[in-house]
Known about the structure:
4% strand; 12 helices; mainly alpha
Amino acid sequence: MRIDGDESAEPSIDILTDRLTARARAAAIAYAALLETAVEAADREPVGFDTDLVAFTLAWSQSNARWHVEFGRYLQRVIKPVWSALCDGDLDVARARVFHDVLVAVDDDLALAIAVDFVARAPGWTTGQLRDRLRRAVLRVDPNGAAERTARTVEQRRLVLAAEQHSTASMFASCLPAARAVAAFERVDAFARARRADGDERTLDQLRADTFLDLLEGVSIGTSPVHRRGVVEISVPWSTLARGLDPTSVQARTWRAMESPSGNPSQLPNPLCWPGSGRSRRRPDAI
């Protein structure tokens, strides 16, 4: 059964593409109408209770109702060209959300100026391309605010554990400092690739996930991470430590050995490894 009731022969490619375009436009217009009504309903209610009617009527959670109302308000009152394009069906919901997500962090006047510059071209880009271009535009017009926005975002960092289907779960962190997140992923990936090189038949994605859990739970990885440029992994046998050798002296001598020609110690990003006894997160003290 078809939505439009047309049970005729299989449509041509041209008909299908025209239908896709028309229905995408209709979906954008319908969503704009929903946002408009949600904002209108919220604006009639007292502050603090303004999303109650939306949440109750649509059986939405308070957080979902709040997000839609604030999204609609931002489009209507700040980045008005994006709102107009959504209402006309010239811009879809996904791209409108990208405009919101990137521009909401900057001053309203800057957000409006960037929206004016990009809204006409946005339908020709994927959401990823649009996001990248908007971010570059924000950095170009407000370079001094970038560090402040990053700091504000990092303050919201959190670790999330969420239930998934079939008795599984997801665990992820968000709003992390980019450099530390990249370094952490790189280390997990290095262990996963080492396990793969040792003959482990799990996929690389599976190995990364299992290594991630093993490192957090303190389970032995059973191998050293693969070599990465600019990274040194130092392993000290447990028997050496058991004889009473001060690991600090090992750290210090290794630290000196890695000094650069300028005399400044190299910044080793990875921790020392103590096989058989877990892994230390200590970094050698500067000499």
